[in-house]
Amino acid sequence: MDDAARFAYHGAMIGFLLKKTFYDAWDNMLRLVLLNLGFIVSVPIPILLPGLIPITAVSMLVAVLGIIWCFVYLSAAALSLKAVSDYGSFGFSDFFANIKAGWKAGAAMGVFALFFFPVPYAFPAAYAAEAAAYAVPAEESLRLVPLVGVIMLFYLNMESIWGFLLAAVIFWAFFLALVSFQFFFAIRARLDTKLKKIFKKCFIIFFDNPGFAFFCFLHTVATMALSVFLALLLPGPAGALLFLDEALRLRLLKYDWLEANPPEGPSVRRRAIPWDAILIEEREKTGTRTIKGFIFPWKD
After folding, report:
1. Domain coordinates in residue numbering, the chain
2. For all residues of the chain together, what is the average pLDDT?
């Protein structure tokens, strides 16, 4: 099969993914708003509350616990939104049960997120330009920098080719981890509960579907950028989690098809996935709607 045909099949999957996510988000708009409100209430805990505590050790502890709580909340939200992807719904009791079920995964991802949380860093005079780039009021050259940035700056301060290479390795390693771990909560909801296997499957999904993973990452960035104009109420973090769960759910159909249709003999070419055939049942369940159907669904 030529590249044009492959692109057509892949485009069919992407188009249906966007369509299904929009339909499910529209039908569950109130649930998304409520989930986003809970997250909006949680975010000030690690950002604002530590500044009100005069004891440094306690302030840092509150910040760390606040970050971990935010990700426990996202884990519970992802587990709840799985029901929406599966053409169902969820209630308050389901969400609170999912907090208990998903707190370990949320805490693990919260620890990883600490690498992106700003910490005080004193820039040397040689890096005055870098210091000026962080417009955060602080004493002299002290600025708040993401922890991963502190690690990179440490190697850059070595002022050698090895330091530069190590900084580059750190940057790309964390970037690839970030793109891979975007599926973390969806994998926890759909595939496994053991942390080691969840992390492993994040990388498997990424390296087997790099283009798809980057598309999902860009979609998440665009979703969160759009959400800023709507005060994070819509689509917000819940909308991003819903899309990622929908994406993983549909992508897993590829592996079901490959298992049911093993290759005949050895082949080195990557097999084209017949998404049009695979998505027939999903399209029937999702259906199509008119503008009138969106606004007045009871009249259809």
Report:
1. 14-121+130-260
2. 87
